[in-house]
Amino acid sequence: MIIIARLMFLLALFLLLVTNTGQMVFAQDDNNVRDACSVTRFQSLCVQTLGHFSRTAGTSPSKWARAGVSVSIGEVKNVEAYLAQVKRQGQLKGRNSVALSDCVETFGYAIDELHKSLGVLRSLSKSKFSTQMGDLNTWISAALTDEVTCLDGFEGSKGTNVKLLQNRVQNASYITSNALALINKLATEGLGSINDP
């Protein structure tokens, strides 16, 4: 009976240790994403969209920048597909139809600019760091401008379809804005921050 009690005690102690260790790891991951997102304008959206990168990105500004741009690419592609579907269905008429065609075009440009940015982030180099940061800032700012230009085309428009479209586009612009902030953090942290694998 004493042996069973001791085994139960050891099992309970083991489970407590494993649970607390897991909670500490998750707490550290949560701190990593919150720290990375602290420089962004839309922090809660940043934490929500980048939280699953916490373990792999750790405290690395270059990995957080890559994660931010990757998430932005995914969101912009989703919105572009949505815009193309709305256009195919002919849900918008007149001025809004023209604005929608412009949006599809500008979102295509944004995807290209974000892909170029991700390519640079994958090959950062100390000798080209300053130029690379300038290119990244230019391309991601251009992608953000493309998204905002899309929104501008619907200014003053009303209706459920337009409002839904505006919300989707605006969310993509917030995610791209967060990616730009993470790029700027990387640029500020400087050359030493790209030593990570």
Automatic annotation (TrEMBL):
Q: Which CDD domains match?
A: PMEI-like_3
The answer, when asked if Secreted is one of the entry's keywords, is yes
Q: Which GO terms describe its biological process?
A: mucilage pectin biosynthetic process; plant-type cell wall modification; seed coat development
Q: What are the record keywords, sorted?
A: Apoplast, Disulfide bond, Secreted, Signal
- InterPro entries xref list: Invertase/methylesterase_inhib (IPR035513), Pectinesterase_inhib_dom (IPR006501), PME_Inhibitor (IPR051955)
> Which Gene3D superfamilies does the annotation name?
Invertase/pectin methylesterase inhibitor family protein (1.20.140.40)
Q: Where in the cell is it found?
A: Secreted, Extracellular space, Apoplast
Renumbered to this chain, the signal peptide range is 1-27
- Reading the lineage from the top rank, the first entry is Eukaryota
What's one GO-annotated cellular component?
apoplast
Where is each Pectinesterase inhibitor domain found? 28-182
UniProt-listed Pfam families:
PMEI
Chief localization class? secreted
Q: Which SUPFAM superfamilies is this protein grouped with?
A: Plant invertase/pectin methylesterase inhibitor
**Endoplasmic reticulum keyword on record:** no
User: Which GO MF term does the entry hold, naming one?
Assistant: pectinesterase inhibitor activity
Which family would the database say this protein is a member of?
Belongs to the PMEI family.
Q: What is this protein called?
A: Pectinesterase inhibitor domain-containing protein
Source organism (scientific name): Glycine max
Q: By which gene is this protein encoded?
A: LOC100791264
